[in-house]
């Protein structure tokens, strides 16, 4: 009898334990589901109806406004009623003249070479005098250069030039504008590149400078948080801007690369090679509509709770995610089989095949 009672009690205990476990599991599942639903609703609400700050009364400093993203963004923000200080490398050039002709009287063209501290100081003096105690709401680091060639033939001064403009130029501008941004608890927006993550042949100097600029923005974000300054990066995909369409500049650069080659390297990189690089730059396939970048900059400036990073343009998200998450051998396989890489490689193979080499060297070049 006692044995039966013990068995019964154990059975009851087991049943109650299982029932309690099932109840807890059901409750936790319900609470988790509700939490996920609430987060999804809030996220969709933010995406569909983002809270925007009023543009009126705000001032923004943009670098690199001679053409491309800077020129288009300056016009876009001016149309919204924002006071724009447009830094131009050539204040008497065509781009600056278009800004003066097409924008309101509030837009101010400022002579600016981001590699010259005197230019930066003079620009800040002009902005400080205009904004007074209100400070500056935003600075958009846009000025940049992109000269592409294999690292082996890239002159050291070209690598230094990329660092001076794309990295040190951003640092000069930010260090000079932080006192003005602190007054308004404003925003630093840096137009970097998918090449900060997506590395590929020919764009070594550019990618190195942009990756360093990305690190600068990340560290600055941590350090500026206590002042209420938000730091945001934008990674555009490929667009047809002056960086890729200025064929005269590119022709001069490739000629410079050719002139500085050693006798040994000239066997591999002939004038035919450099001409092929100029003819097959792929710029004609890129979109000319820059409005996605303009809208993204506006979102970063005016959204009440902006993201720390935005990507816009053709395949920008895919490019960055593939570099971040694909295994390195697989990622590099796709890069090696890209159109630009294949065109360059075919020229190298054709040049190499004309030389007297053993078959092993030729096979190495063909499949590297």
UniProtKB/TrEMBL annotation:
The record ties this protein, via Gene3D superfamilies, to:
NAD(P)-binding Rossmann-like Domain
Mind listing the UniProt keywords for this protein, alphabetically? Oxidoreductase
The molecule here is called Estradiol 17-beta-dehydrogenase 2-like
Name the Gene Ontology biological process terms: steroid metabolic process
- Where does this protein come from, organism-wise? Acanthaster planci
Instruction: Check the record and name the Pfam families matching this protein.
Output: adh_short (PF00106)
- Say if the entry is tagged with keyword Oxidoreductase: yes
Q: Does the keyword Cell membrane apply?
A: no
- What GO molecular-function term can you cite, just one? oxidoreductase activity
